[in-house]
Amino acid sequence: MTITGDRKFKKIAVLSLTRGGRRLAGEIAEHLSEVYILENQAGVAGTIRDNWQKFDAFVCIMAAGIVVRAIAPLLVDKEEDPAVVVLDEKGRFAVSLLSGHLGGANDLARRVAVIIGGQAVITTSSDTLGHTPLDLWARENGLVWTDRKKMTAMSCRLVDNGSLSFYLDDVISDLPHDFHVQERPEDADVIVSCRLDFPADKFVLHPRNLVAGVGCNRGTRSAQIEKAMQEACRENGLALEAIRNLASIDLKQDEEGLLEFARDKNYRIDFFSKDDLNGVKDVSSSEVVMKATGARGVAEPAALLSAGSTKLIVRKMKWKDVTIAIARVDWPWSVPDREVRNI
Question: Could you tell me the pTM of the whole model?
Fold first, then answer.
């Protein structure tokens, strides 16, 4: 696991007030293809407000105080707010002002500083001390957390102690230099696991390394599938956050309840033909399913095929109209695109 240190932005807005600022804006636009120079027609606050949801980064060539007052009413959350970098008119400093790690402002400040021949100003502790930013590392490697306070506490511990200890319930290679492996979860600062059975005071990062195979009767509602998924995970001590995607037979490509569930939960679905499913060995079979679909089974083989694995950690569980099985993805885990697709 490595951090690229180079956030890819789709759209960067550049806003300036003076002739010198406009010159710098043009220089930046010459080197970064994703840059759009904004006209300051509604004033700084109005222009930023009108474009806040349209860009994933802002470069403001003006006094930091002006920018702070303009963006203050717009701030929501560090996982949602765009990156903001502030430059002085002479281009001496590129200050990472907002969303330094997760939003990529630190990287953007460095890129801009190179372009204008200035100095990047980074105040994030992990960056200035040379430590791995835990939240960014987790996000870039598809790890999910549910407790932000614990994430902040662990990040502070890393800064204070210079390292963090990890318990991993799967093989992970290339850990950063300041992350060290422990053999027992009780000895670790951070646990990386798809499971839930750890003490409540532990900070757990969930890898998205589970695939849920789903079989369902025609007309099954989204709520029924969701309830079955929740019960399957709860009864087997698995985190819902660890579900990477769904998988089923291609006959279910128009099953509205399944598609609605996938859309609501932002899951991709992999669909497989009956021949693909019948080619998977050592899975449960059903005469009823064979008669209805031509496949000996759906949930188990679909989960295994989508996961590219032989690790079926939850064999099929049956409800009135739903069948769920869960397979585990081998390392390296892929962070999937979020869309319904066919195979």
Answer: 0.69
